[in-house]
Each structure stands twice: as C-alpha cells, then as structure tokens.
Design goal:
Blueprint: E1 18-19, E2 26-28, E3 34-36, E4 40-48, E5 68-74, H1 86-97, E6 104-110, H2 115-122, H3 125-141, E7 146-150, H4 165-180, E8 190-196, H5 200-206, E9 212-216, H6 236-248, E10 256-261, E11 263-265, E12 274-276, H7 277-284, E13 294-295, E14 298-299, H8 303-315, E15 320-324, H9 338-344, E16 347-348
Parallel strand pairs: 4-5, 4-15, 5-6, 6-7, 7-8, 8-9, 9-10, 10-15
Antiparallel strand pairs: 1-4, 1-16, 2-3, 11-12, 13-14
Helix pairs in contact: 3-4, 5-6, 8-9
C-alpha cells in the first residue's frame, strides 16, 4: 500500500454499524447482479500507529466514530518471526483507550512497508505456523475482537515479491485452527484480510476462510483526465467495476468491505505523491465543497462521492465500508467531514 506514507504503510477505518432506512428495496449488485439491501453495514477505519504523536487518548476524538478500528502497526521481523514494536504497541494502546466499549478492535498484521517480512514468514511453513501461534495468543491476551491480515506485494524488491495465494490460504487456515482452540470466552473470533482492488482472484481463493475481505479501492485512478486536469482517484465507475470483479470471482457481497481513501493522489507526478484530505481542505481556504474531488492537483473522494459509494454499498448488500486512514479526515463536527458523510447515509445503530 503505497499511500500517504513514504514507508508504504496502510491503515483503514474500522467498522461502524449503520442501519438503512429500508430493507425491502433491491439494487444492482457489483457487476450488475441483483442484491438486496442490507440493514446493517460495517464502517471500518484503519488507524496507523505512526499517526499517534502523543500518549493522551483525548487527543484522538476521531477514534470513536467507526464501529470497528483496524489497529495498524504490527508485522513479522525481517526473519519472519513474531515481533512487537514496543513504541507502536504503546501507541496502539492509546488508540484503544480513545475508543468506546461498543467498538471492535482488530489487530492488523502486515502492510505495504513490511510486505517483504510477510513474504519471509508466509512462504515458510514452520515460520508461518510459529508466527500464527504467537499472534493468536497475543490477540487473545490483549482482548482483540479479531485479526486482519494485510497481504501485499513487496513492490520495492526487484523483482517484486508476490506472496502466492496458496500461502495466504494456509496462513488463514492456521489462524482459524488456533482461534478454534482458544478458550470459549475469548473475544478473538473474527478474521479478515485486506487485498488490493485487482486481487479478486486471490479473494475467490480465500473467501471460505475469512469473515470479510477488505478490498482496498484506492491508489487506483481513472485513465482519462477530469475537467479539472486531474486523473480521478477511484471514481465511481471504477469502484463498481472492481467490486464486480470480486463478485465474478465468487466472493459474495456480504463478505466484502469496500475501501475508500481519506487522502488524494496526483497521478501526473512521478510516484503519484499523496496528501491527506485534512491538509488539502486547510490549504484550500474554504474552496473545497461537497462536490469537489480535487485540489492543487491531488484527486480525492469528496463528500458527495463518499456518500454515493456508501449508498451503493448499503443498497447492494455489501458487508461494509472502510477507510484509509481515519486520522486524515477533518473534524467530525465540520459539515464536510468524510466520516460524517458516511454516517449521513443512514442512522447508526
């Protein structure tokens, strides 16, 4: 995940339960298949430990708005062993103290910046099994509600290291086995994985081993420029197309949590640099409106587009929506908050 951080980190917004106004209507499912409206969807937010700069939970009011927070910042060591960055662990604890008791906390393993370490662990059976045993025991001991595996390609390597789908399947199977062996009162029962928007074939291979797949529909751009001269960031047509590809690969809508960005990217510049929505909003001096999807060359998802995507997911029976990254929004009390836009589509249960 090469977004917003030079270290290629990823984090997305964790699940918030939303109730739609009607459960009777039906709409077009991803790729054109009919699917009924869901009465509850997850609103998830990835929260990266690197974005936590103080140890005062009150400094992070945005943590309380999603119903599920994906706590990002844990990965294997370079030799594929269980490893905890103690500073990140302390920051994740701050995240969790800023949450409410009704929210879910998922332990996230992996990410773009540590994809090579995931490759070393994931492709070696002995290392994989030892890692999973330690990881599940840690998640249980620390009261997590679930585990999210962020499975990415190590693009910085030459050639890029692509972790085979069969190794991801083996990893998820082992996690399920370890979860099943936990005491009956454990909170750790849910398992998800995060995949890019073009990895639908891998999604089809792992769908039976996870509760949800977090499809990262960001860091992808339209092929033609908009009228403002930018390449649109994950436009609605692309959003629907990528979801349809997952459906065609056999992943049911009710297992898909679709990702949206809280940042913008400039495809015209080498490396597609990114900037957070809150920074762009401040720089615009009030010029950004609900209909705006770009500023200063950076294409993002504005309020109207975020609402449209959320409504599409609700109308077509998807499991939910998730965000990378939760701290990149403006204050929730602001009318043009992207999280507020998500929650405006339907009431929160």
């Amino acid at each position: 995940m090469n977004r917003l951080f030079n270290f290629f980190a990823v984090l997305a917004i964790g699940g918030m339960s939303l109730c739609c106004s009607s459960c009777e209507k039906s709409g077009e499912g991803g790729g054109g298949e009919q699917a009924g409206t869901k009465d509850v969807i997850v609103v998830g937010g990835y929260s990266h430990a690197a974005r936590i700069s103080t140890f005062n939970p009150a400094d992070y009011p945005y943590m309380k708005y999603p119903s599920r927070v994906y706590c990002f910042g844990t990965s294997p060591s370079a030799d594929g062993k269980w490893y905890i960055n103690q500073t990140y662990e302390q920051k994740i604890e701050v995240m969790r103290k800023a949450m409410t008791s009704s929210q879910e906390a998922f332990l996230v393993i992996g990410g773009g910046g540590t994809a090579k370490n995931m490759y070393v662990m994931g492709t070696d059976e002995a290392k994989r099994n030892a890692y999973v045993e330690a990881m599940v025991a840690y998640a249980h001991a620390n009261g997590y509600d679930g585990i999210d595996i962020d499975w990415e390609t190590a693009w910085s390597e030459n050639p890029p290291l692509r972790i085979p789908a069969e190794d991801l399947v083996a990893l998820l199977q082992k996690i399920r086995e370890e979860m099943a062996a936990l005491p009956s009162d454990t909170k750790v029962r849910k398992l998800s994985c995060a995949l890019s928007s073009i990895e639908h074939e891998i999604g089809g291979a792992v769908k039976d081993y996870v509760d949800e797949i977090n499809v990262m529909i960001y860091d992808c751009y339209g092929e033609t420029e908009d009228a403002d001269g930018t390449y649109p960031h994950a436009p609605m047509s692309q959003f629907i197309e990528r979801l349809g590809n997952y459906r065609d690969a056999g992943v049911p809508n009710e297992k898909i949590i679709a990702g949206v960005p809280f940042y913008g990217g400039d495809k015209k510049q080498e490396g597609t640099p990114t900037q957070t929505y809150n920074v762009l909003f401040a720089q615009s001096g009030g010029a950004i409106t609900a209909a705006t999807n770009s500023w200063d060359g950076y294409a993002f998802n504005g309020v109207d587009l975020i609402r449209e995507k959320t409504q599409y997911l609700v109308d077509n029976g998807y499991a939910g929506i998730m965000v990378w990254e939760i701290s990149q929004d403006i204050d929730y009390d602001e009318p043009l908050s992207l999280m507020r836009a998500i929650k405006s589509v339907t009431a929160v249960r």
